[in-house]
Amino acid sequence: MSGFVLCILAFLTTFFVGMLNWRFSLCVLMAWGYFFGFLKANFVDSAGHFIFDASTIGFYFALMMTLTKVQNRFAWKPVKTWLILLIAWPVFMALIPLQHYLIQLVGLRGNIMWLPMVLVGAMMDGRSRVTFSIALVFLNWVSLAFAIAEYLLGVEIFIPTNQATSIVFNSNDIVGNQLRIPSIFANAHSYAGSMVATVPWLLGELIDNRKNPLKSYFLISGIVACVLGVFMAGPRQPVAILGLVITLFLLMGRINLAFLICLLVVGSVGSYFVYQNERMQRFMDLQDFDKVQARVELSLNSYFVDLVLDYPMGNGMGAGGTSIPYFLQTYLTNAVGLENEYSRILLEQGLIGLGIWIGFIIWLVFRKIDKKDPAFATKKLCWIYAVVILLTAWIGIGMMTTVPGTVLLMLAIGICVAPSLDKLGHTSFANTVKIFSRSIHIPAYQRGLARA
């Protein structure tokens, strides 16, 4: 089976499932995202790099054909203007031929492809969150099973050595020159980062809905799989982000017995396995101040001012290294090595694009979440996670192209800025029109027809 066939299959599965139920289609999309690295490594032809893109497009098409405008406008209203700006400016920049058209196209894809997932996150009500969290638990355990198998049998058994997997086999900085564990993801950082991204959803659902003990145990098991995966993978930054998210929630969130029990169970299980295995202790390097300082200085890019002076309007879409596949690298001109997401945005979108992103981040930081919202814990955790990721994006690159971490980030942004859909309850379409009419200014005579 070629990568092209897999692209078609990915598109069709999310599209047809989406025509039946967009919530299930989102879960199918996440499944393709989890297995993307494994599939790309084994189907290394050029089309294999766009399997997740095809799945995303299928999801979008199904969503556009099934959702009503009433639902869309209510859920999307707070963030719609920002998304228009964040998408429209890169599209405009892509029309300026500063790079080869293929580089421009791939660069545009990396800048806007998964931004609409913010709107999907804004539409997620209670039923959506339950469905999504259950799927994440299953996927987390599948990825952990692969990680354990790679740990015992070797990464090479599952991930072949080729041009698409060079980053996997270059990451051999674990004790004894052992490889980091990528599981079924493109690399170990994607694995660990995606695991951290699922914690707000699982932990938030656990806190918000505690009526079913069996469901609570199930969610806790998924969180345990997350934590073990983060430490097995090897990268240090996801460990720091996980600790920061939990600490901030302890300081800012609504603490209850469910959260404390989960923290105790997960902490005990994680600590036992981590301290029993030296391989899982790479995060201890964070205690080395000199090493951390050197890594931060590398990412800060001391020549940021030079980039501003040399490329005030950018160097073309894709010029910042937005996930350019190996077979297109020769088309890239004036390449600049970067370890800073905001330097990348500057290099590809210019000062105006960077300014739009800074404005959006400031707006998001000052968003307030209603404490009476039935999904308060989930929204608060997603807000904390999103803010932490955006404010630390100057350390490293790939915020907009990590599969499926970028989708999880955008969903988190969407749900934490959206109005509460849970308070509306499950009503008929006529009652839904009645409830939403004030938000979208439906004329009085149409509201009368809805009541009739």
Verbal overview:
This protein is an all-alpha fold. It has three domains: 1-67, no CATH class; 70-419, no CATH class; 421-452, no CATH class. Helices cover 66% and strands 0% of the residues. It contains 20 helices and no strands. It has helices at residues 3-20, 22-42, 51-66, 69-76, 80-94, 101-112, 117-122, 126-153, 166-170, 188-208, 213-233, 237-252, 257-276, 289-300, 304-310, 341-365, 376-391, 405-417, 429-440, 444-451. Helix 8 crosses helix 11 (213-233). The longest helix has 28 residues, at 126-153. The radius of gyration is 22 Å and the shape is globular. The model is unreliable at 424-452 (pLDDT under 50).
Helices, strands, pairings?
Elements lengths: L2 H18 L1 H21 L8 H16 L2 H8 L3 H15 L6 H12 L4 H6 L3 H28 L12 H5 L17 H21 L4 H21 L3 H16 L4 H20 L12 H12 L3 H7 L30 H25 L10 H16 L13 H13 L11 H12 L3 H8 L1
List keywords for this structure.
452 residues, mainly alpha, 3 domains, globular, disordered C terminus
**Unreliable segments of 5+ consecutive residues:** 424-452
Count of discrete structural domains: 3
Average pLDDT metric: 81
Strand content: under 5%
Strand elements, count: 0
- Number of helical elements: 20
Which sheet architecture does the biggest sheet show? none
Secondary-structure element order, N to C: HHHHHHHHHHHHHHHHHHHH
Class based on secondary structure composition and strand pairing: mainly alpha
What is the C-alpha radius of gyration, as a whole number of Å?
22 Å
Question: Ends: how far apart?
Answer: 55 Å
The percent range for helix content is 55-70%
Shape: globular
